[in-house]
Amino acid sequence: MSNVQELPLLEPTGGQGVVPCCPPLTERPMSAPEAETAARMFKALGDPVRLRLFSAVASHEGGEACVCDISDVGVSQPTVSHHLKKLKEAGLLTSERRGTWVYYRVEPSVLAAMGQLLAMPAAA
Amino acid sequence: MSNVQELPLLEPTGGQGVVPCCPPLTERPMSAPEAETAARMFKALGDPVRLRLFSAVASHEGGEACVCDISDVGVSQPTVSHHLKKLKEAGLLTSERRGTWVYYRVEPSVLAAMGQLLAMPAAA
């Protein structure tokens, strides 16, 4: 059993994919629950090694990678696995075991939701 | 004298505004220096109270606010000031003193740069 909560940034929309939890930061002040959710995700990317690993997965051929593909960031493989787990817990990566290896994939809808949070209003 | 370094996410481009430091996370693996720069900014938004304050400034009338305008997030005014200072050090806010109050303003080019980092590739 795990204490870690999956990040509910995105809500299912009846088979139509997902919708972001929060409006752009510039639209109105965020509520406390919205900020809790979004801050968890920004925090997950707030570490240089995690950010490099996330980028390595996101830019890898086919949009997925196993630990064996992305171990060149200068930290040990257990450390790589630890950071990938954190990214997964934050909802930024999904994973799937195939044979010996666990493959990680970026959750595109979460990236899109974060991008929308940072969207600027159209010029007046 | 201060130990705090201004975040060099954006580089001047000869009076033509600024350009982002880093390509989209999905384009290629980030280098270590790029990740250091970008992680500092994500980390600054990785706290719920800071994120609410940032959103309060970003969404305030005229795109700027003083501490007097945004003290309703349930923390003391010194705490508000502390978090605004952190956001300023990360390059996300600029500030200007006018009379009694310091006014904070979102740096739009930094938001745009963060948004670009999170941009997804065009569908194939």
UniProtKB/TrEMBL annotation, chains A, B:
Superkingdom classification of source: Bacteria
Entry-linked Gene3D superfamilies: Winged helix-like DNA-binding domain superfamily/Winged helix DNA-binding domain
Family annotation (PROSITE patterns):
HTH_ARSR_2
Task: Give all residue intervals belonging to the HTH arsR-type domain.
Answer: 30-124
Keywords associated with the record: DNA-binding, Transcription, Transcription regulation
**What name is this protein filed under?**
Helix-turn-helix transcriptional regulator
Record organism: Streptomyces durocortorensis
Classification from the root reads: Bacteria, Bacillati, Actinomycetota, Actinomycetes, Kitasatosporales
